[in-house]
Here is the input.
Amino acid sequence: MEERKIVDIAQAVLAENDRMAATLRADFDRLGVFCLNVMSSPGAGKTALLERTLSDLAGEVPIGVVVGDLATDNDAARLRGKGARVVQVTTDGYCHLEANMVRAALDALGLDGLRLLIVENVGNLVCPATHDLGEHARVVLFSVTEGEDKPLKYPTLFKTADLVLVTKIDLAEAVEFRRDEALEAVRGVAPQADVLEVSAKTGLGLERWYEWLRRRLQPER
Amino acid sequence: MAPVTPSGGPGLQWAVHEVSICAAAVRAAEAKARELGGRRIAVLRLRIGALAGVVPEAMEFAYPVVCRGTLAEGSRLEVEHVPVRCLCASCEAEFEPKAAVYACPTCGRPSAKIVSGRELELAQIELE
Ligand SMILES: [Zn+2]
Here is the structure.
């Protein structure tokens, strides 16, 4: 039998991604760009919320958007023409964005002059948890139509959130959403996160979301 | 995990997410093996936290597929599971949570301070 050598390594499996993410974060800091990683399941209203956010804020703050999508260009198309710079990344079946995909997207988008960069991750409440994209904050969305216990079912991602947005609250009554139960679930699973309730359709709660963003932006340069 | 059914046959489910993570682990192990002049990786050991965001069973399924054509072809994957531990800020005590809400067993407050359980680490390899 051949001699075997045991080699201790003790390094992060995603060390390569972590290094790229650190490089991105350093670029953001140097250029005064605040970067958000926005995550949710498909259909939680991520694109609708971002559409409205761009329409309301792009005149005030220069915004860039990186849209991660499995294949189609639909989400990116919806976000164009709202005053922000938008670039799409097709993940070719990958269930999450990785830091090198964001890097490639930024080579096309350019960071110059931006104060806010929004990375819309692939619609998935599990996989995006593993990869650091160099963001300063993580936003996790879930809609009233997904059920009050969503955070209890997907705790891993919710536990990484800096902000949880409960979306489509205009539909709360129609779907008999039990608000107290949902907020208790979010606060129990993600006590580190801020929680806001919003509706992209009626505008309810949006001003508080914009305030949350404004407080985190670097001063204009 | 994003399960897809490849054309391999009915009922054969594997996870794209874990394939990508396995591939990263094998790449890192190969780099180390080459650096040390190893011919073959016989065993690859990972430490996976309960909060790492990967499904260990899916890792084991993805592993042999990912190893094909690499220095780790035919090798064995061993996974050490790392449980979640968190700290209660009020009681200043560590505990192992039992549910999605990390409620302190002493005072009942949910803890936001995770001490371990996020590990996704290439721990060790055995080289030939
Ligand atoms: Zn306590």
Remarks:
- The interface with chain B takes residues 2-17, 93-96, 98, 124, 126-127, 129-130, 151-153, 155-157, 159, 185, 187-192 of chain A (CB under 8 Å).
